[in-house]
Amino acid sequence: MQAQMDFLFQSVRLANSYMPMHAHTCYELVYYGSGSGTTHIRDAAHGYRSGTYAILAAGTLHDERRLTDTDVICVGFRLSGLDMQLREGLYEEETDRPLQQLLLAMLTEMQEQRPYYPEKLNYLLGMIVIEHQRKVQVSAFKESADHLHYARAYIDENYNQKITVEELAEMVGYSYHHFRHLFKKKFGRSPIAYLLNKRIQRASHLLLHSALPVTAIAEECGFSSDAQFSTLFKREQGEPPRSFRQKRH
């Protein structure tokens, strides 16, 4: 990946001022070192504060309304050799603010203009992109894990209802195949295998610790018929439900 800087500046924007909708021909990173206000990125409104920053793609309309005096650092840049686009939005810095430190180092390079400063500026810019992408990847991983745990909890609570993989995938915002792959990678079973195991475990418990007839247990555990229950139970437990109960009583 190569980063090429187009512009870089720092300014203080006064409270109760407004910058109308505008766009650039390159990426722009707007870093809010202090202050508070709102910014619209396309049609989405975001509230900024100290330690947040916006990523804007080329051609993206955005504005800015300041509630308090706002110190910003803006850098415009282009990327080559990156097989994905940066995701637009407003982000929050880490506690130690690595992006702010890199941006301040860029401002120092710009002011001092020592030998090879253009190359150093692009190097620091590349570091900023890497730091941002790392943050996005970690956030995406956590979000994915949260979604998968939600899907598993939904199965745990509703195993006796009709559940399809398509419904689960739609519920957490993934395609069928992507959800199935992520679920199996996370929990060691496909969603359907996990659901079946949950039903079989519950059925086994009821066979051993209740007087419910097999037909009622099949219905209680979400099986569509006695025949389906018997077939799947035997496949998973090695013997039919009635035999399983009789041998252990």
Automatic annotation (TrEMBL):
Highest rank taxon of the organism: Bacteria
InterPro entries: AraC-bd, Homeodomain-like_sf, HTH-like, HTH_AraC, HTH_AraC-typ_CS, RmlC-like_jellyroll, Tscrpt_reg_AraC-type_HTH
Listed Pfam families: AraC_binding, HTH_18
Domain HTH araC/xylS-type per the UniProt entry, residue ranges: 149-247
UniProt keywords, alphabetically: DNA-binding, Transcription, Transcription regulation
Alphabetical list of Gene3D superfamilies matching this protein: Homeodomain-like, Jelly Rolls
Membrane-traversing stretches: none
Entry-linked SMART domains: HTH_ARAC (SM00342)
Transcription found in the keyword field: yes
GO molecular function list: DNA-binding transcription factor activity; sequence-specific DNA binding
KW Protein biosynthesis (keyword) present: no
Protein name in UniProt: Helix-turn-helix domain-containing protein
Native source species: Paenibacillus sacheonensis
